[in-house]
């Protein structure tokens, strides 16, 4: 079994390895909150190792998880666009290491270092594409299919050679929030995936097999219920 946290070390760009005023490496423990929604925004973060959950709370007090970030992603970048307060909360899921770049340092690097500009543009495009994919997923896919895609994304099963990967300590409530469904429905889908041999689930950790990708093969021409899928042999 290959654990989710097993990943090759990132090769950081040279300009991030230099000793630069306003740029520091920080380590956070599981369940640490890097920043809270509404607090002052003074820096942007680059995730080197671990996982970070981004969530928002509405004015009515309803919380929604909007992303779980993997290494080589940035977050908190809205401060570079003039936002003075955090628009979301960033919470650590696994012990992680990040580069914290102050707003002033980022603006200096953007003015003086072409390499940093290219790096930042690539990461912002990646973040924007992720948001677009999530929106399209919500608009056009059933909740069952969204759950399958989420599990594959969280484990990277569809992108590497590992036949299975494990997601530790992610509740069904969190999964339901991320796919825009309810906990009972997610529980129903998880049990179905388990019976079909796509996942192993003990109520705590989830082992995802690459065969789960079969759920993503949907023949819309056959019609059917919004929350149904066809499995192609």
Task: Please provide a written account of the structure.
With 233 residues, this protein is α+β, with helices and mostly antiparallel strands. Helices cover 32% and strands 24% of the residues. The protein has a 4-stranded mixed sheet. The chain has a 4-stranded antiparallel sheet with strand order 2-9-4-7. A 4-stranded antiparallel sheet has the order 3-8-5-6. Strand 11 and strand 12 form a beta hairpin. Helix 4 packs across helix 5 and helix 5 packs across helix 6. The N terminus and C terminus are likely disordered.
What layout of secondary structure does this protein have?
Elements: E1 2-3, H1 14-17, E2 23-28, E3 33-35, E4 43-49, E5 52-57, E6 63-69, E7 73-75, E8 89-92, E9 96-102, H2 103-112, H3 114-140, H4 143-155, E10 164-167, H5 172-179, H6 183-195, E11 199-201, E12 206-209
Parallel strand pairs: 1-10
Antiparallel strand pairs: 2-9, 3-8, 4-7, 4-9, 5-6, 5-8, 10-12, 11-12
Keywords:
233 residues, alpha+beta
Please outline the major beta sheet. Answer: 4 strands, mixed
Described by the principal axes of the CA atoms, the overall outline is elongated
Rounded mean pLDDT is 78
How much is the radius of gyration in Å? 19 Å
Order of helices and strands: EHEEEEEEEEHHHEHHEE
Q: Structural class of the helix and strand makeup?
A: alpha+beta
Number of strands: 12
Distance between the termini: 25 Å
Estimate what percentage of residues fall within beta strands: 15-25%
Given as residue ranges, the uncertain stretches (5+ residues, pLDDT < 50) are 1-8, 219-233
Strand line-up of the largest beta sheet: 1-10-12-11
Binned, the helix content reads: 25-40%
Q: Counting H and I runs of at least 4 residues, what is the number of helices?
A: 6
